[in-house]
Amino acid sequence: SSIPAHLAGSIVAGLILWLVTIHTLRYSLKLLFMYKGWIYESRGRGQKPTLATRAWVLGVKLLSGWQKPMLYSFQGSLPRLPLPSVRDTMKR
């Protein structure tokens, strides 16, 4: 009777650990995708990215994997975009 209890406990613990890991990875990617510093850096011959941008690229590569992502694979990790006000939309 002890073996089924240990088996059930192991399954529940593994499931909880897996869920926590997945949510941590997705939330970390969401935080990384909020970084916009790379947009404002000067680019060109002889220009190197800043240390923050290089750390950002490394973090995204480590958390997302080295393979090419599928089309909608990061859809849930993207930060939410602000909606324009109704007044601005009606002016258009």
UniProtKB/TrEMBL annotation:
Domain of life: Eukaryota
Keyword Transmembrane set for record: yes
Transmembrane segments: 6-25
Entry keyword set: Membrane, Transmembrane, Transmembrane helix
Name of the protein this chain belongs to: Uncharacterized protein
Provenance organism: Bracon brevicornis
Lineage: Eukaryota, Metazoa, Ecdysozoa, Arthropoda, Hexapoda
